[in-house]
Amino acid sequence: MAMTRRSFPSRMANLAFEIDAPDGFEPLDFPTEIPDFDDPSLSAPLAVLSSQVALALITIAARPAYSDGSVTDWLQYLSGHYGIALSNLTLGEVGGKNKTHPAVLAHGMQKQDGTLLQLRLAMLEDGGRLVTIHGMCPLELADSYIPAMEACIRTFELDEAAGPTSPLSAQAQ
Asked: Which of 67, 135, 137, 161 meets the CB 3.0–4.6 Å disulfide criterion with 141?
């Protein structure tokens, strides 16, 4: 699947970014209200890209980082809250065109309305801002979409990075 570099303006917390999106994925409209971040499970969408021919989404969302723990802890908390079974959890990075961001990378499975979804996820913390990038599609479409989604996620770059202020994992402290 061919990719095109896309730029997205900041919706909150100076989080403008670029990402290589698969051709045929187009931005969707979504509510612009910023959620009440007192609920630790909520994030605000920064962008949602959808395949024009199948149920396949790439979502970028953010929230303030939590006051304690690591990025791995936070990914495990949010995944558990939303019923996502994680696997292949690794420490790595995203970006690479102009800068890189340390990130936690993972595979996931989730059942929604009787449909089993396969996910690829990355989570990073930058200057107290927690950003999640994930791609998902039904399991039966995974062979067609997951490789492009995974490649897309790995190209995520903030325009103005502040640098991490929290460890990726408890072992990295």
From this structure: 137
Report pTM: 0.95
Distance CA 25, CA 44 (A): 20
Which CATH number do you get for residue 136?
Answer: 3.40.1000.10
Residue 24 belongs to domain spanning: 3-33+42-168
Residue 153 has pLDDT above 70, yes or no: yes
User: Which amino acid is located at 164 in the chain?
Assistant: P
Residue 173, in any domain of the structure = no
Report which DSSP code applies to 52.
S
Phi, psi of 96 (to 5 degrees): 115, -20
Per-residue pLDDT tens for 92-118? 999 988 889 999 999 999 999 999 999
Cβ atoms within 10 Å of 74's Cβ, excluding its own = 21
